[in-house]
Amino acid sequence: MKYLVINPYHNASHGIANYIKNLKSIVNDIDLISFDNKKNLSPIEFREEVLKYVTTKFGYDDVIIEAPEAKASTLLLPAKYNVHIRLHCPLAVAQKYDGQTPNQQEYSNELRVINKAKLVSSPSYALVKEIGNELKSTQVTYYKNPIDIGDSEKNVDKQYDLVFMGRFQELKGTSHINKILENLPENYNVLLFGAKSETLKISPKVKCKVYKKGQVLGNARFDLIRKSKCLMMPSNFENCSMVILESLACHVPVVTWDVGGNKEIAPPSIIKCAKLGDYNDYSRKIVSFIENPPSSNDFTSAIDCINKDFSTGITHLINEIAQKTIIPYLGMNNEKLHIYEPTRNDQTITEINKLRVFGIAYSNEHIEELWGPVISYLGYEYRYVSRQPLGHHTVFKHEPFQIEKKWFCHFDWIKDPARLINQIKNYRPNFILFHNGAHPIYAHVLKSLKQLKIPIIYSELGWFPQKDHIYFDKWGVNGLSYLASQTTEQLCGRTFVHEKEYIELKGDYALIVTQLENDTNLIVNSPRFKNNETFIKHVVDKISDKTDVIIKPHPLDKYKERYEKFASERVRVEINTDTNTLLKNAHSVIGINSTVLLQALEFDVNIYSYGHSILDNKNIAINCISDDIDSLWSNKLKGSREIRNSVIENLKLRQINLLDIREKIKPSDISLIPLVENNIFDFTHIIDINLKPTQHPISLTKIDHVQLTFPTGSKKSKKLKKLIKKPKLFFNDMLKNLFNHKNKVMHKR
Known about the structure:
Layout: E1 2-7, H1 15-26, E2 32-36, H2 43-57, E3 63-68, E4 82-86, H3 91-97, H4 104-116, E5 119-122, H5 125-130, E6 140-142, E7 162-165, H6 174-181, E8 189-193, E9 209-212, H7 220-226, E10 231-233, H8 242-249, E11 254-257, H9 262-265, E12 271-274, H10 279-291, H11 296-323, E13 356-361, H12 365-378, E14 381-386, E15 408-410, H13 417-427, E16 431-435, H14 443-451, E17 456-461, E18 469-473, H15 482-485, H16 488-492, E19 509-513, H17 520-523, H18 532-542, E20 549-552, E21 571-573, H19 579-584, E22 586-591, H20 595-599, E23 606-609, E24 622-623, H21 629-632, H22 641-653, E25 655-657, H23 658-662, H24 669-677, H25 715-725, H26 727-748
Parallel strand pairs: 1-2, 1-3, 3-4, 4-5, 5-6, 7-8, 8-9, 10-11, 11-12, 13-14, 13-16, 14-15, 16-17, 19-20, 19-22, 20-21, 22-23, 23-24
Antiparallel strand pairs: 17-18, 18-25
Helix pairs in contact: 6-10, 25-26
């Protein structure tokens, strides 16, 4: 039986092409051939080529076809073919971590080929967790990608202390590079190479020597890695990074963020992972490897384990097809070996640079009650824009924080985004503040803001309690936040011993909590329900008739009486009893994405969530987005008390008490990280020398050159060109025109 590998990319340096090259080198006892997209056809055209090639050359039982999910190349093949989809990284995942809007049509095609395949395999457990909601009925086999680059132990002189190899894009973590390098000793030599590496502006705070080589292809890239003492891989997400595998094969240790499948590849003796955003820890781990390099045996042993895992996995997969029995193989996973060291007392933010912040608020209270105290505490310069004037609205009982009126501007930036963009370009802030940001009404403004490539930091009310607290996030809020993407281990910075702790639920009823219907938790983060009544009816119908139910409307809901229609012998609506009392006597709480669901972590109740939220990926709530609640119902507590308490503790560390910070009481360092470390200093990419006339004041002191422009083809444009190119002719014509005009006037008289 032939083993056909399909490569939808024409670029030989692509990660999938490199995987296929290693696959051919490692597998000797399999009759392997490949079919590449050498003509660089579009995905639709290449699918037709694959269909024609496969159906012409092979019968159903003649071949096993391996293809990546990327580009959905096997979409048109008849279902009887033995198709094996090897997960690399779905487009939507890559676009998400690259700061782009996911292409839902392409993602849908990728999911279709995954669900249609006979077999699915992944080189990491992390990727399957990332897209787990889409793979409910899919059994996945796990084994690492192979690695073979020839002479692994080739001895070369170490010219560089640190190397970065990869495409210079957000997904690969290029925005982290300067912040990592700023912490390295000045005597270090650092090499950056990859497509567009020469475009990276090095921060003036970087003291070490940095060399940039652009794109390097073929085996020459391995020679550059070998000349380095350590490789940094600061990607925002990786499945099973070929760069990491290639670096280990070159006997060069790697420092990465604790994201994706990085920890699974090898033990911490040759891979060290830092918590995403902790630049001090990342830099310390680099220095540790440079000063104390691993032994050659550490690399040899790891490479042997990786290739053995691949060989065992693919052999098992082929046997599955031959025997027509699907028994997934669960391969190696080094994640449990990576344990974070306790945080040292000196790991504090002791010195904060004075930055410029531009805050964009839908309403004034976001500025006066939420941002003002924090930005003042940090000593940052600010400019604020709001759709409402100062003092228009208040949320909390305490007095609004005083804002310098000369740095505040009141206008409707949703209707006039051009004015907003001009103000930002003129002020050149180090970062932008935006409250919530999830509502569709902001979409067109945020699209323009993101084109400026200035970091945007989002804010939202806290959780424990929500009142008088705020948190900041570099991705978004609630289900769109960076916090939501973190696992429990990543959030808490520790691993948990998963004991078989059994806590039986003892409450009297299930508590249903509702949302305000103009809330983004319903509009954006709730894929199943867009109004409370449909949601309540679904839950009441699905849970057992023996379960009593209490409906707790949102306290700000003006139409609470509409829920009385659900009242019955087992269902009642409760308006006056406080939420804590209701949670204390419940066995379950059911909601879409209410803060109450986080509050419920403090009680021994099961949490059933119908929306995307900060609870995602934490394994402490039961997700009902894809499956009905009756099939997920349990009388055993989801998540141990140890894990729940740790999540609560670490979320509290990430929120800022607005009353305390007014009194100059220092919040936790980790709560300030988005405001301290997500900024830029280079604004050359937004300087617009072709400014158009505007009704708003523009400071020309920061602009080197201003060029006046007129519409192409206008009389003014032609005269201006004549003035510049032929000034003598211009003035002769002007005098001639004045003389003719004077004669015409005299003639009329």
